[in-house]
Amino acid sequence: MEYGHEYAPDARLYNDDLAPTQPSQRTWSTYNYLALWFSMSMEVTTYMLAASLIAGGMNWKQAVGTILLGNLIVLIPMLLNAHAGTKYGIPFPVFVRASFGPLGANIPAILRAIVACGWFGIQSWIGGTAIAQMINVLSPRTIDMPWVPGVCFILFWSLNMYVVWRGVESIRFLQSYSAPFMVIMSLTLLIFMYHKAGGLGPMLAAPSSFTSNRAFLRVFFPALTAMVGYWATLSLNIPDFTRYAKNQDAQIVGQAIGLPVAMVLYSFLGIAVTSASTVVFGHPIWSPVELLGRFHQPLVAFLGLIALLVATLNVNIGANVVGPSNDFSNLAPRFISFRTGGLITGSLGLLIMPWRLVSSSHNYLGWLVDYSGLLGPVAGIMVADYFLVRHTKLDTYSLYRRGGIYEYRNGFNLVAIFALLVGVGAALVGKFVPRFQDLFTMAWFVGFFLSGAIYYLLMLGHVRRQQTEVNLIPAAPQEA
Q: Which of 16, 160, 303, 394 fits a 20 to 30 Å CA distance from 297?
């Protein structure tokens, strides 16, 4: 993006990766967003998410209903935050400057980035174990070699870093061609387990373990929060993807169909196959990597593990690298590019010790609920600011300079920070104070609505004064 000298953006807030996208870069169609969601949904952690509900006592109908409801809920902030990306061509860390200020934006950006690094570590570990299982299938003697999983982990991490180095267009290419492949391989796994279990009846035979509605609700509400929390990170940084949309219709239709449909379909696969594993192997196996490793047919196991590997690479790059790369770049745009931000994300992912987070279904769901209490308040503030306070009107030029209408107090919007702290505190207090456990159970919802409401009420007077003093200057390319 080029400016005249008098309109040049502040170098501390701008680089080519953070600049608004130009019309020539708006190449993503409805299909690309459908492929994005199918490729990011059809992967190991989605499967494990569904399987964890069966392990928690739900039957297949309760599990599918919980997953569908959770994804329909998170679709709402997803589409709302996506609007600004398409309209103004800006990524998440730039968009959030409108509500938090040019320096304050680093707070939600880093919160989101840290969570994404955790996910990057989890996905890298899963991808590494899939490679290790493939090696075990081809050469069973490697099963007793403890160094094999560690080496495979590093190899898969390196593959992720290579894709990051190639840039965001390589992601679109990868997802466009891998999504149909993943559909075929997933159906193949379902059909194979159908025959191994002896029909659809045994595959869906796991009964509900709840004897009352009250007992069910005690599991349902934290599970629902975990479903929303699963995509809480992407509901913030979805502008990183929708800034490349051809128009609003492309991203709205693609996401509205892709997210709920892909999640329900692939979650059903996880539920059915996990139930079938009880029949075939004597107990439920919630990890598909472990399940495929138990197959005695090398060809089936090998093809299935390749499918898991492709899916894990897709979601790791799409959901866990693009966002934090831009977030880290926003800290020091002159020194940290998208590529450098991706390398930082990958390096932190090595330090997460992800094997602890996926060691059990309880730890996995707990991780989702914990961080949803951090990100729900950020989503509430962003939605309230863009739609209720500013009515979708942004001064793009001022987002890239200091001293403008988004400067607030020395680059920090204290109202947003206060609303964030209150929302996070209310959402997470129940984790430490048993009396308020219900607040923690619904952590994302509590944080989203409380922080959004506080922000809206405190910001009304401030923006009215702004709008009487400053004429908005539309400096970004508008919708194609």
A: 160
Cα dihedral 264, 269, 275, 278, rounded to 10, equals -150
Q: What distance in Å separates the CA atoms of residue 170 and residue 426, rounded to the nearest whole number?
A: 41
First to last CA, the chain: 16
* Residue 414 domain-assigned (yes or no): no
pLDDT value for 301: 67
Q: Which domain holds residue 275?
A: 30-360
Model confidence at 4, in pLDDT bands (50, 70, 90)?
very low
pLDDT of 3 = 47
pLDDT at 285 (0 to 100): 74
User: CA 201 to CA 24: how far, in whole Å?
Assistant: 52
Handedness of CA 441, 444, 445, 450 (dihedral sign): positive
CATH number of the domain bearing residue 336: 1.10.4160.10
Instruction: Name the residue with higher pLDDT: 196 or 28.
Output: 28
Considering the domain boundaries, does residue 418 fall inside one? no
| Exposed/middle/buried for residue 458 (C-beta within 10 Å: 0-12, 13-18, 19+) | middle
463 touches 390 (CB < 8 A) = yes
Rounded to 5°, angle at Cα 37 from 34 and 41: 140
Quick one: pLDDT band at residue 319, thresholds 50, 70, 90?
low
Q: Print the SS3 string covering the chain.
A: CCCCHHHCCCHHHCCCCCCCCCHHHCCECHHHHHHHHHHHHCCHHHHHHHHHHHHCCCCHHHHHHHHHHHHHHHHHHHHHHHHHHHHHCCCHHHHCHHHHCCCCCHHHHHHHHHHHHHHHHHHHHHHHHHHHHHHHHHCHHHHHCCHHHHHHHHHHHHHHHHHHHHCHHHHHHHHHHHHHHHHHHHHHHHHHHHHHHCCHHHHCCCCCCCCCHHHHHHHHHHHHHHHHHHCHHHHHHCHHHHCCECCHHHHHHHHHHHHHHHHHHHHHHHHHHHHHHHHHHCCCCCCHHHHHHCCCCHHHHHHHHHHHHHHHHHHHHHHHCHHHHHHHHHHCCCCCCHHHHHHHHHHHHHCCCHHHCCCCHHHHHHHHHHHHHHHHHHHHHHHHHHHHHCCCCCCCHHHHCCCCCCCCECCECHHHHHHHHHHHHHHHHHHHCHHHHHHHHCHHHHHHHHHHHHHHHHHHHHHHHHHHHCCCCCCCCCCC
Q: Is residue 453 part of a domain?
A: no
Residue 184 resides in a domain: yes
pLDDT in tens, 30-81: 999 998 888 778 777 787 888 888 878 888 889 999 999 999 999 999 999 9
Q: Label each residue of 58-81 as H, E or C.
A: CCHHHHHHHHHHHHHHHHHHHHHH
